[in-house]
Amino acid sequence: MLKDRGEPMNYELYKTDNIEWMRKFRNQVGLIYADCIYESLDLEWVLLAWGLLKKNGVFIVQTDHHSLAEYIMLFKYDLKSSSIFVNHAIYKQEWGGVSKRYFPRKHDDILVYAKGKDYKFYHDRVRVPKKTAGTALDKKGTGLKIPCDVFDDLGNFHTMSKERIKGKDGKNIRWQKPLKLMDRLLLPFTDEDDWILDPFMGSASTAVWAMRNNRNFIGLENNPEIFEIAKERIENEKLQSS
Are 156 and 148 in contact (CB under 8 A)? Predict the structure, then answer.
């Protein structure tokens, strides 16, 4: 049972198959962020998750060329009557190996849809410096602008970053996303006390962001080792903030 607005921040973690959990869950959430399994074309989880989204809630799915077209088609046809297209954003990173046979594949695709036209979007929270700051072209005099939908200003999430989480083998957890990306994606679409559902929790970056920004959180993860790492990370975050 979700807590009412005004009660202390809460987080709920479930070591479970996300499809089975979402079939049983009956409450609704304000935002769903899914850094999903890019290669999987089994999109049943999307339909279940969409059913858990509140009216005017926001659905964010992060993927790449493996399944981008399938997600677009699902929203265009299966969810056409209830979904509003918001953005197709590009998250660019340029570290790692390259091929001499094609342009280096150095980005993720991020699709944003809303369950109604009156979704939240606070652009002031994510404004960035613009090159014309302090010139006549900066007509409002703020020196700031709303970032475009190509996120090429966030920089690389290097393997040596202090934010990186390691597994028992001492290697970095794969697919971890940086908190600066969470700022860009979650700050404009949510308020304090809102509930965020992450059906592919991984190392709990979304949970840590939620704790730091006074949002409530539900995380689902079916890998036992990753789940324990996520729990430990959240407990450490809780201790540091107390």
Answer: no
